[in-house]
Design brief:
about 270 residues; mainly beta; about 10% helix
Length: about 270
């Protein structure tokens, strides 16, 4: 059974956490409405049309049944391949948490309860049984594919408007920087738009859990499209449970240097899990 996280950790774990293992079975075929066809070089099109940036600054709104009607908004700042910084607010002005992720470290400050967490990605592996990686977090938030895995050995399914790309045991490659080994594998299904080659859905599966990211309402930022509506859904086949969180982004600002302030008060106490 999935654990019940507080709203702050909900964003960190549900919005960012990937689910994969060395030996996995797909729990649900998200491309079942498409027809199986001979494999074609679709991944090259996807990679050529990914959202590119050096810096990002964008505001967002959060919605989820788990928030019990509490309005939550925030700000996301990123430096590519370096830092993800998130500020979470309630009622539009009261900051309740900050999250900072770097290539090798995670920082969480629960300002509402005056608690903090500082650790690395092995904490997520210990707490959830799942290995994670900064570059995957970054890709999920921007609607891009993962740079840490190879782009061959897949099947495709097509309709007039969409193409499904199905990887079984997708292998990590040498581009992974931290906390991934080449022997690790991922079961993944992508659905892409045949006109824009943007990812509309990214589904990651283990034997019992499934994380699905749905992307829509694309807006142009520079010469690339950015998904301003993102829904992360986490489901468990064992407990027949599911959870979802929706992120509604404004148009992102890119190219401007950002700062990533994160200070832990001297009287704050460590989070207990």
């Amino acid at each position: 059974m999935m654990k019940k996280y507080n709203p702050i950790l909900l964003f960190l774990f549900l919005g960012l956490t990937l689910f994969f293992c060395q030996s996995c079975k797909t729990t649900k075929d998200t491309t079942s409405s498409l027809n199986l066809v001979k494999s074609v070089a679709r991944m090259e099109n996807v990679l050529d049309n990914q959202f590119s940036f050096d810096w990002i600054n964008v505001r967002f709104m959060l919605s989820s049944d788990l928030l019990q009607g509490i309005p939550m908004s925030g700000q996301l700042r990123m430096r590519k391949d370096s830092v993800i910084w998130i500020s979470l607010n309630t009622f539009g002005f009261y900051e309740i948490a900050r999250i900072k992720a770097t290539q090798d470290s995670l920082f969480v400050l629960d300002k509402h309860n005056n608690q903090y967490f500082v650790g690395d990605y092995r904490f997520l592996e210990k707490y959830t049984g799942i290995k994670t990686n900064f570059n995957m977090f970054e890709a999920l938030l921007t609607g891009n594919d993962f740079q840490c895995f190879d782009t061959s050995n897949y099947q495709t399914k097509e309709s007039a408007q969409k193409t499904g790309i199905i990887f079984e045991n997708r292998r990590a490659n040498n581009n992974c920087i931290v906390h991934l080994e080449k022997s690790q594998q991922l079961n993944q299904a992508l659905i892409i738009d045949n006109e824009t080659y943007k990812i509309l859905q990214n589904t990651l599966s283990t034997a019992n859990n499934q994380l699905q990211a749905d992307y829509s309402v694309f807006q142009k930022s520079g010469d690339r499209l950015f998904p301003t509506e993102v829904i992360f859904s986490l489901s468990s086949s064992v407990a027949s449970e599911s959870r979802a969180i929706k992120i509604s982004f404004q148009k992102p600002a890119t190219g401007q240097v950002q700062t990533f302030p994160f200070n832990i008060p001297a009287n704050a106490s460590p989070m207990k899990f």
